[in-house]
User: What shape does this take?
Amino acid sequence: MEEKRRSQMLKGVLDMCLLALIAQAPCYGYEMVQKLAHSGLDLVSEGSIYPVLSRLQQHSYIEGYLVDSAEGPPRKYYRILPPGRAQLQAWAVAWQTVASGVNCILEGGLAHESA
Amino acid sequence: MNQRDQSGSIQQLVDACATYWLVHDVPWRTVNEMRLELTAHVQAAAQDGKAWQTVVGPDVRHFAESWAEAYRPQPSRTRQLAVAIVFVLFAALLTAVLDHMLYQRSLSIVISWGSLIRFGLLLSAQALLLWLSKDLLRDIPSYRRRGVLIVAGYLLLQGIVGTLVRATGLDQHAIINSWSWLATLGLALLTGAVAWWVIRLDTAAALARSSGELF
Assistant: This one.
């Protein structure tokens, strides 16, 4: 139940998280999943990142390019584009506003609980 | 599962998804990239001891559809409006044609409250039928087959609704106006023109997508 709720919450901000990961350094799909998991953000279905990446690409926030891999088929790497950087800034501001509002309400609720 | 079985099932999974994408209007060059990306991911996951279900989830079709949808252009408001107009015009046309050929058997027919109720019921029943069968229709790639199925649905519903309304006797009473075959012909031409325009909008969008892939 809690896992499902966490997954739903992540789904709502997955595009922002992926854009932020790509902004740090160009990376491929599986690498992004590993980085998300490393931050404690596990996806129920790892492949759910691909439709999101495709949409980011269609909005010209990122672009993909194939790189040969010694371990298997070529990997598709993604790098961020200038409109993506601008969008990431805007999303980050919106997220900070929402997160601080939610935190404020949660803290009030938890303080009331313990009182 | 040994390595050979595993690579076989990965191949099957990727082939199934690629077929789905090709059938559902994703350009072939994009499908090739999606195929490579999915293969690389599932193979890497397998090396880490994960099953392919971890990647695509329990429902492969749902996964393939959600990815295909990302490449499908959102229908414009103009197209949505045009489709709704075709939908209404076609129901009116069919109501009139069946009155000419079956219920009143005349070149000049009368519009009664019964025919208006029949038209309204047909429209609602068809909207419900389309909504219930939208997944099934989406899986049919050909316009012609989709069209034949929709017309068959219309005819079936018209038969049921027509029989029910005629049983009430409303068709014979409460006459509002008369309707000539020329008006029906005009309605047919208008319906055909709007439907042709919708198909042209879709074809233009598909061509734009393909040229975007080529250049």
In short: Chain B touches chain A through 22 residues (CB under 8 Å). Strands of chain B lie at 109-112, 175-179.
